[in-house]
Write a structure and sequence with these properties.
This protein has 4 helices and 2 strands; from the N terminus they run H-H-E-E-H-H. With 89 residues, the protein is mainly alpha-helical.
Amino acid sequence: MRTQELLAKIDIPRQKLYYLEQKGFISPKKTVIGEKEFREYSEEDLKKIEHIWKYLKKGFKYKVAYAKAMEEIAHPQLGFTKPENPPKG
């Protein structure tokens, strides 16, 4: 997935996306076509960005947002996010 597609899907500002890359939180593959360089984001990158962006929007700093995102990805069973339809009973 290229940058434009990712930005449309997640709605993260381009500068923040590039900052995540600059800090090493994500590592998109770079492809050169002619004189232009394009970033190609994997499904793993997409998942990381979605989770990090969720925490950044809540006001966490980048390092903390990254740590929380990685914890949530590694242990989804811990339920960091609220289920849309919690079980009754």
